Amino acid sequence: MTGAGRPANSGPRAAARNRTALIAAAREVYSEHGLDAPLSAIARRAGVGQGVLYRHFPDRAAVATAVLEENVRQIEQAAAEDTDLAGVLGVLTWHLTESAAFISILHADGAGSGSAAPAYVPALSRRVERALRGHLPEGHRLAAEPDDLMIAVGMVSGAVTGPTREHRERRAQAAWRLLGVEVGPVRPYGG
Amino acid sequence: MTGAGRPANSGPRAAARNRTALIAAAREVYSEHGLDAPLSAIARRAGVGQGVLYRHFPDRAAVATAVLEENVRQIEQAAAEDTDLAGVLGVLTWHLTESAAFISILHADGAGSGSAAPAYVPALSRRVERALRGHLPEGHRLAAEPDDLMIAVGMVSGAVTGPTREHRERRAQAAWRLLGVEVGPVRPYGG
Q: Are residues B71 and B156 in the same domain?
């Protein structure tokens, strides 16, 4: 009821803000309820109407893709700033423990029995690898064979199960310890 | 057309033989085509009619459960005979590379975001753990913390992706190498 014009929360700036809020809300809702959570729960968490959600994301898959894209972007940002591998691995590990869905993108060469990964997934996986590899010191445990780095990431993602975030983070830490790889604070980029 | 009596391939002995053939066929078909493969393909591979398949397994889930059960049984048999952990891990690794479905049972405490593991899965996972733990020497790399053994198994299962069995086996071997754990020949029990 703010008059006959466009509602207060529109315009390009509001649109970008809504999109960011929707992605953050989707990550939280997925983390708590899995990828099958209703889109209405995401809109509600973001504090926008469902119409706004559908304006940004035509369907369920588009929301999930946006979250994965944003996860990868945060790892790239951490890699652009942090100077050591441990710091970047900490951000990667945070995303692993936050979202089971994210894990699937680290199995990008998968095409494994029965797994039907969407087409954009290998590209995201390569971006994660590039972000990490830029910080991999010569002589590092994971630098011996070309595949070792991403095999190790797949291994940690395989360990990250459990009912709560704390449980999953503990298992991720144990996995890095078993690999003999140091990992920095487990936190979101900028968090 | 062997007369008016029961067909040649019936009777309790034939039933047991058919069941064994169906489980072996299902494992192969799942390995090649994933869990969504049609039941008709499994019956065909086993050389029995679909009616025979349905007499043993009321539905799709029953077939998958029987394969998982049989996988675990083979690991238990290897553990009962082999005297070292490496030998049992070789059989475990064979099942990992053979069947992506098997991997999910090793994430039994999962209940992770979005994963809905059937109720029998934790029991199977505990049987795998028991079979391995009986061969874990004191002072072994994976004996330091109570969870380390099955975290390591989860880690290897996380690395086992790829389009072919050979590809998946290479990645599994790399994963055990990164963990510093020796693994015996990757082969089925008795194979």
A: yes
